[in-house]
Amino acid sequence: MTVKTVFSGFGGQGVLLMGYLLALTAMRQGKEVTYLPAYGAEMRGGTANCTVVVSDGPIASPVASSPDYAVIMNNPSLLKYLNVVRQGGVMLLNSSLIHSEMRRADVTFVDVPVNDLARELGEARSANVIMMGAYAQVTGVVQIEHLSETLAETGLGKKPEVLELNRRALTVGAEAVAKATQ
Amino acid sequence: MTKKLMRGSHVLGEAAVLAGCRYYFGYPITPQNEVPEYMSRRLLEVGGTFIQAESELASINMVIGAAMAGGRVMTSSSSPGISLKQEGISYLAGQELPAVIANMIRGGPGLGNIAPSQSDYFQATRGGGHGDYRCIVLAPASIQELADMTLQAFDLADKYRNPVMILGDGMMGQMMEPVTFPEPVDPAKLPEKDWVLDGAKDRPQRIILSMLLDPKILEAHNYKLVRKYDAVRENETAWEMTDCDDARLVVAAYGTAARIAGGAIRRVRQRGLKVGLFRPKTLWPFPAKPLEELSHRVRHILTFELCAGQMVEDVQLAVKGQAEVKLYGRPGGVIPTPEDVAHQISHYYYGAHLDEEGPGGGA
User: Fold this and answer.
1) Contact A92, A131 (CB under 8 A)
2) How distant, in Å, are the alpha carbons of A32, B16, B254 from that of B38?
3) DSSP-derived 3-state class of residue B105
4) What is d(CA B33, CA A41) in angstroms, rounded to the nearest whole number?
5) pLDDT tens-digit map of B286-300
6) Taking 70 as the threshold, does the pLDDT of residue B358 lie above it?
7) B5 to A20: CB separation less than 8 angstroms, yes or no
8) pLDDT digits (tens, 9 = 90+) for A113-147
9) pTM of the prediction?
10) B77, B27 in Cβ contact below 8 A?
């Protein structure tokens, strides 16, 4: 099985790190992976996006013309990917920042107010990790424990207090969507 | 060795260091800036020398100097920067100096754009600079192969005293994939080079130059190079064939295009189309002989390139008119999907009635 996910948002929201975390975790689970960042004239505050492909077999193209999942961190990214995600796909929306009502009938939308949840958690910068918790819960592409292990064992979040915060952030994200989809 | 998730540009740098490369000279250009970024840090750790030169021309001339002094040396750039290095590459070839040059191709001509492309095939495989010469050109199709071929490139360069080019594209430079690195080479344990310029104290003088004014002498030098290139052709030509045994149509593609074509072929095979993949791993020498042999039984070849059609000429030369050769080229940095390529394959396949019974299709 091959799963393609795009992550998109403002530069600075940790969008590339989300993709890297997914790719690294899936690789550690024995999957084939590719991670392709957009490398146009990008800058902080501009747009940032990356594509991650996770597969049981060889990956032909690291590009996704119709991704299965889209993780959308801001409004411009919703406009960009709304008509790109495949029929029956899932879009996870950062509903703290996305107020547009635009939707598609053939795609499942999951609202996660990650900036609000991050503030409640006491660390605004954990919004992207909260979203990864939600992503894992919704898609099942990777498990939350495995994301947590990757953060602990690869030096992505070295300090113990950061590690603990990230663990909690993953759980907060997962619980938020578990509630919403009940 | 453990698997790492790394960006192509960093893999190129790490593999070079593992191959014993201790000298890197370059000048920044997107989409391969992460190569000098990586080398600036990594070469310090192993006691090497990194210089960000003032220009491409300066950096390739530094490569000439380091190669003359016997070091394993690399430079890298992307299309417009590689054009600027061509004079130096011609000198490397003329002076028979080993060096590795990586080109992460971007869309052209001119400044073009920074998107992945394969439009420098002609430049890479026809020499690129002036004079009668060839670069050995390696075309990796994955990040793992990029690592393996980078190590191979340094060995080939030393073995034949010839510049070796690694031909990738912007996507390969930016993309991350799992990679396992081989054991490092100890530069001190490499075979001694008996031609380097390292000071003539207590030994006869050596001279390395490319200016040979007497036509008879230059002709002899040219024929010496020709014999060397013949040996490279004989010994180093590399290719890969997948699903070709029962194929009625073969896609010829290299690098990133080959992996996209591979995905397309998996799709059309599921629908019963008998399609294979012919992937050159060396672009020069081009695997003409195996392709010619293949064309005795497969009469339809679709060349797929990320450019307006360059390798297709080598395919045509190789098959000597025995097979029909068609082109699906996408220039300008556009990356078609495996679905796009599958459409092209199906269109050709059914158009030529290859789905009908009979040996080699109904052609």
Assistant:
1) yes
2) 25, 11, 26
3) strand
4) 13
5) 999 999 999 999 999
6) no
7) yes
8) 999 999 999 999 999 999 999 999 999 999 999 99
9) 0.95
10) yes
Q: Which of A29, A52, A53, A63 to mutate to test the interface with B (most CBs of B within 10 A)?
A: A63
- Minimal Cα distance from A64: which residue of B? B337
ipTM of the complex: 0.93
Q: Hey, are the CB atoms on B260 and A39 less than 8 Å from each other?
A: no
Chain A residues within an 8 Å CB radius of B339: 65
Query: A167 CA to chain B: closest CA distance, Å?
Result: 22
The Cα of B259 is separated from the nearest Cα of chain A by a number of Å equal to: 5
Give the range of the structural domain holding residue A109, as residue numbers without chain letter.
2-180
What is the CATH architecture assignment of B4-199+206-236? 3-Layer(aba) Sandwich (3.40)
For chain A, how many structural domains are there in total? 1
**Contact present, B223 and B231 (Cβ < 8 Å):** no
CB B169 within 8 A of CB B105: yes
- The string of pLDDT tens digits covering residues A26-52 is 999 999 999 999 876 666 667 899 999
CATH fold of B240-351, please?
Rossmann fold (3.40.50)
> So where are chain B's domains?
4-199+206-236, 240-351
